[in-house]
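Support request from a user on the community tier.

User writes: "When I paste my structure tokens into the form, the page sometimes reloads and wipes my input. The last time it worked, I copied everything first. Here is what I submitted, just in case something in the input itself triggers the reload:"
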């Protein structure tokens, strides 16, 4: 098995050909119906009636086709506040009209401890998500802000993601937000883009196909092996090679859906 943690380790080996298959699944099935499947950013609704339209530009098409959007699963309308002791809190501004119960919102939205904020006075909140992505060959995933989607009301802060090898370190994603303008509410509607994912392959010009994969016993065991490592060490990247040595050769098994009736 030659998965390789680092792209440079693949030099001198036979390069892959054809599309790279990236699998995805939800690590929690309870309420999973509310989560949108990943979708390619490129859409058919764009103007292609003119030969010089940007929608026909190969460079634009190539870029957009390499990004996949993850959409918000429920309505969020949040405010930032501090209690009488100065401790930061998140308020659900929808109150009794909120589509998500307060107890469930508290499970999904967390504010990191103030001493862990990257910048003083700028809170960091996290939305826990059940999405996991996996590959059976060297693939790095990068999580970035949805910069190709227009937002009529800009968010009062910035999204930050990360980059990691999904072939050896598949993990549940989360949406992290740094709240720069805490006097302004954070509002995201169900179905709005939360973030994009893009995938680096070997060689770089290979296309990517994203498919839902079965959660097999082998996949479950491997996820259990690496889960929670961040609670024990500071630099989880140092564990990549150890994880690779214990990884099954194949983890992706595409889900077979029954054909829909016309």
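"...and here is what came back when it finally went through:"
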């Amino acid at each position: 098995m030659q998965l390789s943690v680092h792209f440079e380790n693949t030099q001198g080996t036979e390069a892959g050909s054809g599309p790279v298959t990236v699998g995805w699944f939800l690590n929690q099935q309870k309420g999973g119906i509310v989560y949108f499947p990943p979708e390619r950013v490129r859409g058919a609704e764009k103007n292609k009636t003119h030969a010089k339209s940007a929608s026909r530009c190969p460079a634009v098409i190539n870029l957009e086709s390499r990004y996949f959007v993850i959409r918000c699963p429920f309505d969020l309308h949040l405010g930032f506040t501090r209690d009488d002791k100065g401790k930061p809190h998140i308020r659900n501004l929808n109150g009794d009209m909120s589509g998500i119960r307060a107890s469930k919102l508290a499970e999904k939205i967390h504010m990191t401890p103030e001493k862990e904020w990257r910048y003083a006075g700028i809170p960091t909140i996290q939305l826990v998500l059940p999405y996991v992505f996996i590959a059976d060959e060297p693939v790095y995933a990068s999580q970035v802000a949805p910069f190709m989607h227009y937002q009529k009301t800009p968010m009062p802060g910035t999204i930050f993601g990360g980059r990691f090898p999904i072939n050896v370190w598949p993990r549940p994603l989360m949406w992290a937000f740094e709240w720069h303008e805490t006097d302004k509410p954070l509002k995201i509607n169900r179905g709005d883009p939360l973030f994009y994912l893009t995938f680096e392959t070997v060689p770089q010009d290979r296309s990517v196909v994203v498919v839902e994969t079965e959660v097999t016993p082998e996949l479950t065991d491997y996820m259990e092996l690496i889960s929670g490592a961040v609670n024990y060490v500071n630099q989880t990247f140092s564990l990549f090679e150890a994880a690779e040595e214990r990884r099954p050769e194949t983890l992706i098994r595409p889900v077979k859906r029954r054909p829909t009736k016309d």
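Agent notes: The reload is a front-end session timeout and is unrelated to the input. The longest helix spans residues 217-226. Residues 5 and 238 are 11 Å apart (CA to CA). Escalated to web team.
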